Amino acid sequence: MLGQTGGIESMQVDRFDRVMASHARSVMLGMQHVAPQMKKQGFGSIINTGSISGIQAVSAYMDYSAAKAAVIHLTKCVAMELGEFGIRVNSLSPGQIATGMGRTGPDAVEKAAVLRELNKTRQPIPRSGMPEDIAFAALYLASDESSFVNGHDLVVDGGLIGGSSWTERQRMSASVQGAL
């Protein structure tokens, strides 16, 4: 469920509750239901879906941003508890990934194509993130290769949360210097 746009004064409480339930409560319930079985077997890997919106404040969708921050923190809290039972709990935080999120049918395909073009210039790696990038990161967290990774939020965003690309930063710096 996508978050609502607008400021805190126009935030609809029932919509806020639905976004929190869809993104944070659902993660808690999922972990609550799999924990007993994983404890019984003595191992497991839980992978939750965060977002870079949960790391950086996204005021345009503050309910979604807050829900994803809750997922990331809840993941770390549960990792501390379940790690003692051989269960690793981590999260993945995608950046801008070219999907049709929030759309269906032809609209989803069109949105993904538009995002592929827009995302090429948004982060230091000059291509759009693809669903496969997230799948490979999840595969790593689920595998034995990550057996000592617990309570970690793996950001998969092409460097987006690090800031502008080097070339863009140089262009902006030159523009500022020229204005001064």
UniProtKB/TrEMBL annotation:
Protein name: 2,5-dichloro-2,5-cyclohexadiene-1,4-diol dehydrogenase
Family (UniProt): Belongs to the short-chain dehydrogenases/reductases (SDR) family.
Coiled-coil segments: none
Region forming the signal peptide: none
Record organism: Bradyrhizobium iriomotense
Pfam family, any one: adh_short_C2
